[in-house]
Write a structure and sequence with these properties.
2 copies of one chain form a homodimer.
Chain A (H helix, E strand, L loop, with lengths): L5 H20 L6 H11 L6 H12 L8 H18 L9 E2 L2 E2 L1 H4 L2 H20 L5 H15 L4 H11 L7 H27 L3 H28 L2 H4 L5 H4 L5 H5 L1 H19 L7 H12 L3
Antiparallel strand pairs in A: 1-2
Helix pairs in contact in A: 1-2, 1-4, 2-6, 3-4, 3-9, 3-15, 4-6, 4-9, 7-9, 8-9, 9-10, 10-14, 10-15, 14-15
């Protein structure tokens, strides 16, 4: 992470991991194989981009770190569940994730379905116990549920499934797909931090603009990494998009134009955060990371 | 339904259907195949037992019917998602549900996974917009999330998967399995109504006792129906439990003892509801229905 303060980012990752671990500990009496699959899906690493966005946004506007733990854990639990289900044979059929066997490979397909289902439920249970006042908590729960659902993440994955191999997407359709599949949850992470901080409407609009640019940049960088990397570095199967004839930014507009688009999104992010000055340092660093990351 | 007022039950079913339909209408811009699968999973009938429990409980303690619509829709959306995923080839592998092809048969397996995922998210989105005060809404959201997750419904299904064919369950383990797999969500339905009504602690304890007895009775009756019925009457594949060597009450304690157990659960329900008198008429009728139902 190219943050001004890498130690802070590491501490946030540890906070999120601890919050997720504590949430799983509340389920110690659950069916052992299901619980083991949930730990496998959540505690074997990962960038924790979404929790970092919750912490960076919330602390920028005055919320204490510990008051952000439940929201950080909740958004990562939703992300983790989506990876488990996306990796299923009936979806993207991937055997490797974060350098580890995917859940349906390490366990079995039925367990992987239940694992994702239970992680989604756990996300809302964790968020329901957040320390924000009830009205803010309800708004946060609504935000996460809407972002995760058919109008957001699930809808984006459905578009992705429908488009794979069909070769009919133009660049606008691809951007719309990613705005839902990846962007909705990244934006929700920023919004959860903003709702916890009870920011004013103008700030919320700027944070949305930042988050939307970050979400698109994150996906374009993901597409470029699939072209540029090998599986060992990436921790998942590289070259898969091309093999599956997936619509990607490099495939539709070329590698150079994709890189240029990243630079223009960097400018959009800087502009959105400009009025916040120093307090947005961590958010700006996360934006730069989305564009420069190599894993 | 053997209710004292069948018209009221029909009206409640229509209210729940309408609330679910309205929730799906908010997703009109979603990927068409995903949305069609969600309609297929939710709007093709079903007993609506869980919404009826929400209405019967809430109205018994003074809540207006329309204030219960979101909770009724939410609990049914969770139930509907669980059926879509339970029917998957990697889970119970069933082709027929409510007399219709299951979602993965009518659509495809990837769509069925996403359909269930999106229905779960929608449940929480709908409940977040319920008209109860924020603190009550948070409690309702927590209740639904905990009941649906690894400590409840998902955990019960995981136990069921682990036990199928293994032949190692005793009657206590089978009751525990069903208390989680079916019972947790039926109890959540009663609790959502109770939370909406802000009932006192003593009332809550009695309602839990009623709901736990109803949940177990519901499952024993389900097991008996699998033995007694044909697929046409049942609307799903009959004789499946025996074919899959599933632990069931008739298999473990016999048909006669299962029927006797139902009668004792009927007495437990009557006793739990006794202090509520006339106001619990609809709840009592739902309890009797759980025991006598033929579909």
């Amino acid at each position: 992470m190219a943050a001004a303060d890498p130690g802070r980012v590491d501490a946030w990752r540890q906070r999120a991991d601890h919050a997720i671990g504590s949430a799983l500990d509340t389920l110690a009496d659950s069916e052992p194989r299901l619980l083991a699959s949930m730990r496998h899906a959540t505690l074997l690493g990962g960038k924790r981009m979404r929790p970092l966005l919750v912490y960076a946004t919330g602390t920028a506007f005055g919320v204490a770190e510990d008051a952000l733990d439940p929201a950080a854990a909740a958004v990562e639990l939703i992300h983790a569940y989506s990876l488990v289900h996306d990796d299923l044979p009936s979806m993207d059929d991937d055997a490797l994730r974060r350098g580890q066997p995917t859940v349906h490979v390490a366990f079995d397909e039925g367990t992987a379905v239940l694992c994702g289902d239970a992680l989604q439920s756990l996300a809302f249970a964790v968020l329901a116990d957040a320390p924000q006042p009830p009205a803010a908590r309800v708004a946060m729960l609504r935000e996460l549920a809407v972002a995760a659902g058919a109008g957001g993440m699930c809808g984006g994955q459905a578009r992705d499934l429908a488009a794979t191999g069909a070769g009919i997407l133009d660049i606008a359709a691809l951007e719309r797909l990613h705005a839902m599949k990846t962007g909705a949850l990244l934006r929700a992470a920023v919004r959860l931090g903003a709702l916890a901080a009870d920011v004013d409407a103008g700030t919320a609009v700027r944070l949305d603009a930042f988050a939307d640019a970050l979400g698109l940049a994150f996906q374009i960088r993901d597409d470029l990494l699939d072209v540029e990397s090998d599986s060992g570095t990436l921790g998942k199967t590289a070259g898969k998009d091309v093999a599956q004839d997936k619509a990607t930014f490099p495939a539709l507009i070329g590698v150079d134009a994709s890189r240029q688009r990243l630079q223009s999104l960097a400018a959009t992010m800087d502009e959105a955060l400009a009025p916040f000055g120093e307090r947005a340092t961590a958010l700006a660093a996360l934006g730069r990371h989305a564009i420069t990351r190599t894993y």
